[in-house]
Specification:
Blueprint (H helix, E strand, L loop, with lengths): L2 H12 L1 H15 L4 H39 L6 E3 L2 H8 L3 H19 L5 E2 L8 H14 L2 H30 L4 E3 L2 H4 L1 H14 L9 H8 L5 H15 L8 H29 L3 H14 L8 E4 L8 H20 L5 E2 L7 H4 L1 H6 L4 H32 L10 E3 L1 H4 L2 H12 L2 H20 L1 H13 L13
Parallel strand pairs: 1-5, 1-6, 2-4, 3-4
């Protein structure tokens, strides 16, 4: 077994709930955290992640059939079927470029952090590297050029790190995890679009729409409580997924179960998040002390990349994501030129909106509007890449669903910004590739030069959405 195959086997066998605690333990010891605190930090990380997985793995089988039935009720007949991020990760790590990037990505991400090119430590969320791998694999299958494929994956990783660092303080503040952020490219890509749209939406008065968990609870009383809100939202999703059989007791049983399950996620996730957040407190304290000793007068603010499951169940995040499900189904029906039927990855929408939620301070009106626009553009990228992805997937043994001519992943491949970088490398045109690199370097330079000003601006913009109530803190 080669080193790359060994890495692949390790990721597949142990998973994030084991690998992340190991990485956190290593970081804690490197920062000279006392052994007991380091061990507890690692255990809290593992317990928290495993808790997130248990909740998600219980919730998904309950709501997934309802969402699939909702899609079937619409009578959509589109050739490209969304098989979900899970299948995409298997495909990505089964290709030669994907396996190679397991090693290259680990080295690259570690070096970039150590030389202070970025203040986000990404290797603690190695699993999500499959997001870069699938784009590089599509470049490789067209060009048969591993250098181009590797260049595409590396540049996508650089863009992703920049995006993650821009949103890092807002994500850490909003979700309540000290000096932590999410790094998965497929779930943070919409953030830059949201930042650009924010002043435009403010001009339209969206910041005055108090559609967030705190405001709803204040105005609606018990109906606005997260668990009650989750229950009613689950009922709505359940009814939409059973419109063709509301005259049966089985359907109403399904509707009630979805309502209770959604309410349960709202109730349980914050408690698990509280456990998970304890993993970062000793690391953050030690890092600050270490930095102050090493660089007198300088206090490096850095963030640990963590799994995006950490924010899935926060009330504004889960609510916004679930609200977007019927919107995206409806849009897929009428969007000119779209050939994608979003199905499995509709359940990933609460993952996909976390950047939007954090920069808008939980303003769900803004999140839904931004999501509708950006994810609709993403359907076009899915449509374009579906033939390439299908060729790769069938080549590694993925079977097409009955009736599907093509397959895709709405979450992973529905990325307009990352898609542009991919298209530059796919063209094999040095000019387009050069433009993609130069744009990154300019954005990186402007951010590094104005980092504090940008962070302060994002905080001010976030406060406009809910000035009378402190930012949500899921982990508190």
């Amino acid at each position: 077994m080669t080193m790359l195959e060994t890495l692949q086997a390790i990721f597949s066998s142990f998973g994030a709930p084991v690998l992340v605690p190991v990485m956190i333990g290593i970081i804690a010891f490197a920062l000279k955290v006392p052994a007991k605190k380091a061990l507890m930090a690692a255990l809290y990380a593992g317990i928290g992640l495993q808790g997130f997985m248990l909740v998600l793995n219980s919730f998904t089988p309950i709501i997934s059939p309802v969402v699939k039935n909702m899609v079937e009720i619409t009578g959509l007949n589109l050739p490209a079927f969304d098989v979900g991020w899970q299948a995409t990760s298997i495909v990505a790590f089964s290709t030669h470029p994907g396996m190679l990037f397991l090693a290259v990505g680990l080295v690259l991400q570690t070096v970039l952090f150590l030389v202070k090119w970025t203040d986000v430590f990404q290797p603690s969320d190695l699993w999500n590297n499959y997001s870069y791998a699938i784009w590089g694999s599509m470049v490789y299958i067209v060009t048969d050029n591993m250098m181009l494929a590797m260049g595409c994956m590396i540049l996508l990783n650089m863009y992703s790190l920049l995006n993650a660092e821009i949103m890092a303080r807002r994500w850490s503040t909003y979700y309540g995890y000290p000096n932590a952020t999410i790094i998965a490219m497929h779930n943070i890509e919409a953030t830059l679009f949201g930042i650009i749209m924010d002043p435009i939406l403010n001009k339209l008065g969206f910041h005055k729409i108090k559609l967030n968990p705190d405001a709803l609870q204040k105005r609606l009383g018990i109906i606005g409580e997260p668990v009650t809100l989750g229950f009613f939202l689950g009922l709505i999703i359940g009814i939409l997924g059973n419109l063709n059989s509301l005259n049966t007791i089985e359907s109403w049983g399904s509707i009630a179960v979805v309502g209770i399950a959604t309410s349960a996620v709202m109730a349980i996730f914050p408690k698990v998040a509280g456990i998970f957040s304890q993993a970062f407190i000793p690391i953050t304290d030690a890092a600050r002390k270490s930095t102050m000793k090493r660089e007198k007068g300088s206090d490096r603010e850095w963030y640990l990349g963590i799994n995006d499951a950490a924010g899935f169940g926060e009330p504004a995040t889960l609510t916004s994501g679930l609200l977007l499900i019927p919107f995206m189904v409806a849009i897929a029906m009428v969007l000119p030129g779209n050939e994608v039927l979003p199905v499995v990855d509709l359940l990933a929408l609460p993952f996909m909106v976390q950047g939007l939620v954090s920069i808008t301070n939980g303003n769900m009106a803004k999140v839904v509007v931004n999501g509708i626009i950006w994810f609709s553009l993403g359907l076009y990228m899915c449509t374009y890449t579906a033939p390439l992805f299908t060729e790769i997937a069938t080549g590694v043994g993925i079977t097409l669903p009955a009736g599907a001519l093509l397959i895709t992943s709405f979450n992973i491949l529905g990325k307009p910004l990352m898609g542009l970088v991919f298209l530059a490398f796919l063209s094999q045109n040095p000019l387009f590739i050069g433009i993609a690199i130069v744009v990154y370097l300019v954005l990186w330079f402007l951010f590094r030069k104005n980092k504090k000003a940008i962070y302060d601006y994002l905080d001010r913009q976030a406060e406009k959405n809910n000035p009378e109530v402190p930012a949500d803190n899921m982990a508190s």
